[in-house]
């Protein structure tokens, strides 16, 4: 470095002074007097090439060395005369500014802070990774696990968990004592961890069970029509003279005595929403493809969802009554999308149907039964029930009602249950015909009454031993749910604030969603959220079941939201008037 400074700068400054006949500055003087000879000895061939055309005359005994310069050779150091002029000026400025080194532009300079930043407040470092990983962590819990096992899975110390146990009023003498699964969940929630309940099938009665089927496919390909047609053949329709209502699920009975349970909300939005909440109730997906339209984007999406959930597919080529129907083309398209159809050597059955003409429905039901048989579906029949909500609604007289499908065990009237973050004591169980029944067995859709609040589609239903336990678990879940919600909001806020100006220009669109049943509310909300983009942020501020009410209008007024009503009766004239006065946009779908 010293050498380079010497060759490039030292010589140049010496050169400048000789040219201008200015006596050398002190710094240059010391340089000239002491090190020139030594430095010349150390010159590299490259630098020598640069200065070879200078002539040095060193007179021994003299106080300094004299450098003679040949004028035209300045080109050795500078490509152009402007650059030369600029560099010379810069150097003069540098030297005049109290000997401070000014870094050259574009070069990285390590700044050493000498004074504390007085005005900047201390901002604690964000423990983003740790917090996130903890909240997103899910552990498996089971009945009878010890504190040691729980501590190991949760990554917490035994003493921390013991303190929490004391706080929730549970007396545990030793860390080897078995914990009930509910207490394990409470403790895990206290430390902010999600749980997955494992149920043992040991010593239980395992019996074959009917399949649960969901209908998916592209919009307008006839999912709803097919479900309607199938519902007409359902047990409920037969008993009620063809009159049925949308309750979230229905059962189709076959002559052989076997049955199939159909989930009533078509589309993969509802399917994924249920799955996201841990409710993997579907065994088989009926993929509806219109014979006159073929494979479309949502057909592929439905296929992807089914594959991701590891659920079998049975294809229903619908609208086969149409003259433009080309079922063979649809089959080829599906095969080219990687679906291994039975007639092409694979295992995916294809049935041609017409939902409108009600043809091919028997074949579809038989194909589903065959698929279920091949899957050898079985479930634990005895023991406490493990069930999921597929639909929920508010009834004026009966309060919150939830349509549930039992996955394992038996749900019995009078039991205390925790449903999502709600709880209650089952006052009544009704089957899909509306008949009161004492208990519900696997895959039997039932309507339960007696909950304190309205649960959501996909919520799990667990049976607990007492009212106190139910209250405690419900409170714990609500607390955790709220904590997670706030965390998501704050994460969303930082994400929105952090990036460039473009994000701050994102337009927020507050929306209130009202629909006839809980499942639809969720499906509509999910569909609206898919509209989120870098330009628009769909903020669903409130969702609810039932007609648009005065309080919805008030809320919309307060936050400038528009109201989306799906499958609900139009609001009364007074509410409509209030909404128009407040310039609230209403959208009835
Ligand atoms: P979804 O959006 O998939 O639920 O489709 P829909 O069930 O709402 O049906 C969309 C349209 O296709 C409606 O106008 C139905 O009448 C019509 N449609 C459904 N199935 C059939 C069918 O088998 N044949 C004919 N010709 N039309 C059908």
Structural commentary:
The protein has four domains: 138-198, no CATH class; 207-379, P-loop containing nucleotide triphosphate hydrolases (Rossmann fold); 381-477, Translation factors (Elongation Factor Tu (Ef-tu), domain 3); 507-588, Rossmann fold (3-Layer(aba) Sandwich), CATH 3.40.50.10050. The protein is built from 20 helices and 25 strands. The two termini are 77 Å apart. Residues 217, 219-225, 266, 318-319, 321-322, 354-356 line the site of guanosine-5'-diphosphate. Keywords: GTP-binding, Initiation factor, Mitochondrion, Nucleotide-binding, Protein biosynthesis, Transit peptide. This is Translation initiation factor IF-2, mitochondrial.
Give keywords.
six-stranded antiparallel β-barrel, Rossmann fold, disordered N terminus, globular, 4 domains, six-stranded mixed beta sheet, Elongation Factor Tu (Ef-tu), domain 3, 20 helices, alpha/beta
């Amino acid at each position: 470095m010293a050498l380079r400074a010497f060759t490039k700068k030292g010589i140049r400054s010496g050169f400048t002074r000789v040219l201008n006949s200015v006596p050398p500055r002190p710094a240059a003087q010391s340089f000239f007097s002491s090190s020139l000879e030594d430095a010349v000895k150390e010159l590299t061939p490259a630098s020598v090439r640069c200065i070879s055309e200078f002539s040095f005359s060193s007179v021994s005994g003299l106080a300094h060395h004299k450098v003679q310069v040949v004028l035209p050779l300045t080109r050795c150091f500078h490509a152009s005369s402007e650059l030369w002029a600029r560099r010379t000026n810069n150097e003069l400025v540098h030297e005049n500014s109290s000997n401070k080194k000014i870094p050259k532009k574009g070069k990285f300079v390590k700044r050493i802070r000498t004074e504390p930043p007085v005005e900047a407040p201390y901002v604690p470092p964000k423990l983003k990774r740790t917090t996130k990983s903890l909240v997103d962590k899910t552990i498996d819990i089971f009945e009878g696990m010890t504190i040691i096992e729980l501590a190991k899975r949760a990554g917490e110390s035994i003493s921390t968990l013991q303190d929490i146990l004391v706080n929730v009023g549970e007396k545990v003498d030793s860390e080897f004592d078995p914990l009930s699964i509910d207490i394990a969940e409470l403790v895990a929630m206290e430390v902010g961890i999600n749980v997955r309940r494992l149920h043992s099938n040991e010593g239980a009665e395992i019996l074959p069970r009917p399949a649960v089927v969901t209908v998916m496919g592209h919009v307008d390909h006839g999912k709803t029509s097919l479900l309607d047609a199938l519902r007409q053949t359902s047990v409920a329709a037969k008993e009620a003279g063809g009159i049925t209502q949308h309750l979230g699920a229905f059962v189709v009975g076959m002559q052989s005595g076997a049955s199939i349970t159909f989930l009533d909300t078509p589309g993969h939005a509802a399917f994924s929403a249920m799955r996201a909440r841990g409710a993997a109730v579907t065994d088989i997906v009926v993929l509806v493809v219109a014979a006159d339209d073929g494979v479309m984007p949502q057909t592929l999406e439905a296929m992807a969802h089914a594959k991701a959930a590891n659920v079998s597919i049975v294809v229903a080529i619908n609208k086969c009554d149409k003259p433009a129907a080309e079922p063979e083309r649809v089959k080829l398209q599906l095969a080219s999308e990687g679906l291994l159809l039975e007639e092409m050597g694979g295992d995916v059955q294809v049935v041609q149907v017409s939902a409108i003409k009600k043809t091919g429905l028997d074949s579809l039901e038989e194909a589903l039964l065959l698929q279920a048989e091949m899957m050898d579906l079985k479930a634990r029949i005895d023991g406490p029930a493990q069930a999921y909500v597929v639909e929920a609604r508010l009834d004026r007289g009966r309060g919150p009602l939830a349509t549930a499908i039992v996955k394992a065990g038996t749900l019995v009237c009078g039991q205390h249950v925790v449903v999502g973050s709600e709880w209650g004591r089952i006052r009544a169980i009704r089957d899909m015909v509306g008949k009161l029944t004492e208990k519900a067995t696997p895959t039997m859709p039932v309507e339960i009454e007696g909950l304190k609040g309205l649960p959501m589609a996909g919520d799990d239903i667990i049976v607990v031993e007492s009212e106190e336990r139910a209250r405690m678990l419900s409170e714990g879940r609500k607390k955790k749910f709220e904590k997670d919600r706030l965390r998501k909001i704050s994460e969303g806020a930082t994400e929105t604030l952090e990036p460039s100006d473009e994000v701050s220009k994102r337009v927020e669109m507050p929306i209130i969603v009202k629909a006839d049943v809980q499942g639809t509310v969720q499906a509509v909300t999910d569909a609206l959220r898919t509209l989120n983009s870098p330009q628009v942020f769909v903020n669903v501020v409130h969702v609810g079941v039932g007609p648009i009410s005065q309080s919805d209008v008030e809320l919309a007024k307060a936050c400038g939201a528009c109201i989306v009503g799906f499958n609900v009766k139009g609001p009364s004239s007074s509410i409509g008037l209030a909404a128009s006065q407040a310039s609230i946009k209403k959208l009835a779908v």
